[in-house]
User: Which sequence fits this backbone?
């Protein structure tokens, strides 16, 4: 799926954001809800106007899952299987929302990392996150 260079780009970016998952995740959620307000329907547990603590907590959980995927990039199906079951069978998230999350996450990365987030890194992350989305949607029937 990913070349050695793409894996290196993914690891390099993750090293830059590791330890800041809550902050990056909260900003991802804020952008997602602002640009795509219809996505709030999948986050009802956060309420109509989530506070910063809720965004930080849920954002951290989201990005921790990305971190696990970064660690086990060669085994995404096995690692993401529980999340795929959750999103498909319990939460019933419309799979068309995954590309929206990917887009918002890449904007967050670009806005924070700026020149460090090169075109090559963006392309690698787009491919990686799209691969995650494919795995997360495989259990939909």
Assistant:
């Amino acid at each position: 799926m990913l070349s050695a260079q793409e894996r290196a780009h993914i690891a390099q970016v993750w090293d830059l954001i590791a330890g800041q998952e809550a902050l990056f995740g909260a900003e991802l959620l804020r952008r997602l809800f602002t640009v795509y307000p219809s996505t709030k329907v999948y986050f009802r547990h956060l309420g109509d106007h989530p506070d910063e603590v809720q965004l930080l907590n849920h954002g951290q959980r989201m990005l921790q899952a990305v971190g696990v995927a970064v660690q086990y990039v060669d085994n995404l199906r096995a690692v993401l299987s529980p999340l795929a079951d959750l999103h498909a069978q319990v939460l019933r998230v419309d799979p068309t929302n995954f590309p929206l999350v990917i887009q918002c996450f890449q904007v967050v990365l670009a806005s924070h990392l700026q020149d460090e987030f090169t075109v090559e890194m963006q392309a690698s992350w787009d491919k990686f996150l799209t691969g995650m989305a494919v795995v997360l949607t495989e259990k939909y029937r």
